[in-house]
């Protein structure tokens, strides 16, 4: 589509602008005035849609840039190394368990239950 060619307005936009113009119509307002108001509303709607399309295009361009950079980073990333994780248990827990059981058995011998 050429930059200078006039785009046809959609029927939905026309209907919407007429509906809004009729809703805001004042008593004693002529049909011509209502028509001019509807045209102004129509132009406003078209301008809004145009701005939203431009914003959408800009966001898509930025998104493509970012995804391109992410893909580059993924390709150039360092290969993952196999890291072996060794878990060592603490001897303190086992020592405390042994000490508590020894104390329990000693208490039972002292009381004379065994």
Commentary on this structure:
It is a single chain. The protein has a domain at 10-78. The protein is 69% helix and 0% strand. The protein has 3 helices and no strands. The N and C termini lie far apart (102 Å).
Strand content: under 5%
Portion of residues in helices?
Answer: 55-70%
Number of helices: 3
On the 0 to 100 scale, the average pLDDT is 83
**What is the H-and-E element order?**
HHH
Unreliable segments of 5+ consecutive residues:
none
Largest sheet: none
Overall structural class, as computed from helix and strand content, comes to mainly alpha
Name the overall outline.
elongated
Number of strands: 0
C-alpha Rg (nearest Å): 40 Å
Distance between the termini: 102 Å
Q: What's the structural blueprint in terms of helices and strands?
A:
Layout: H1 11-23, H2 31-75, H3 91-111
Helix pairs in contact: 1-2
């Amino acid at each position: 589509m050429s930059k200078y060619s006039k785009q046809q307005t959609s029927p939905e936009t026309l209907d919407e602008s007429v509906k809004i113009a009729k809703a805001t119509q004042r008593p004693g307002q002529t049909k011509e005035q209502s028509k001019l108001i509807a045209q102004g509303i129509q132009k406003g709607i078209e301008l809004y849609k145009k701005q939203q399309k431009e914003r959408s295009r800009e966001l898509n361009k930025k998104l493509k840039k970012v995804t391109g950079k992410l893909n580059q980073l993924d390709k150039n990333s360092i290969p993952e190394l196999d890291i072996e994780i060794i878990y060592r248990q603490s001897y303190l827990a086992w020592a405390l368990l042994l000490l508590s059981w020894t104390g329990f058995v000693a208490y039972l011998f002292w009381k004379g239950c065994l």
